[in-house]
Amino acid sequence: MLLVWFDTHQRVGAQWSSEVFESVASTYFMQLELTKGAEKTLRRLRTQRQQTGFSFLGGGGRNGQEEGSSAADERIEAQIVLDVETLGRQAAALGVDMEKSEAYQRLRQSAATLSGEYAFF
User: Fold this and answer.
1) Residue 17 near residue 94 (C-beta atoms within 8 A)
2) Which is higher by pLDDT, 105 or 63?
3) Distance CA 74, CA 43 (A)
């Protein structure tokens, strides 16, 4: 009797974990896509400012700051990729079937395409 109870609760726990994980991965994916869109807009504005050498806010040519910003962007992108990998490992440890998780597959693909320089997956 105890084995039946444990088996039932183990299956329900894995199903519950999968449902919660799908929700978390979907939300993370949507936020990542929004962030990527905002970043694309900022990069386009940065490029326009560099081409014209003019900024409405002043400080036309600040190449040193832009190089630092690029290095910071790369570190952030790398951290996001690592966070997605860690999320997947932790979900798998909870019994989530990662191969069946469509939300996680979309999230991994989105994180992998943050920058052409990163191919962690």
Assistant:
1) yes
2) 105
3) 13
Alpha-helical regions (H) of 53-120? 63-93, 102-112
Residue 56's SS3 state is coil
Dihedral, CA of residue 100, residue 84, residue 29 and residue 101, to nearest 10: 0
Mean pLDDT score across all residues of the chain: 79
Q: Residue 101's CB: how many other CB atoms inside 10 A?
A: 20
Residues in the chain: 121
DSSP class of residue 99? Answer: G
Cα of first residue to Cα of last residue in the chain, in angstroms, is 44
Measured CA to CA, the distance from residue 17 to residue 9 in angstroms comes to: 12
Closest to 117 measured CA to CA, from 87, 76, 83 = 76
Give dist(CA 17, CA 85) in Å, integer.
17
Q: Using 50, 70 and 90 to split pLDDT, how confident is the model at 5?
A: very low
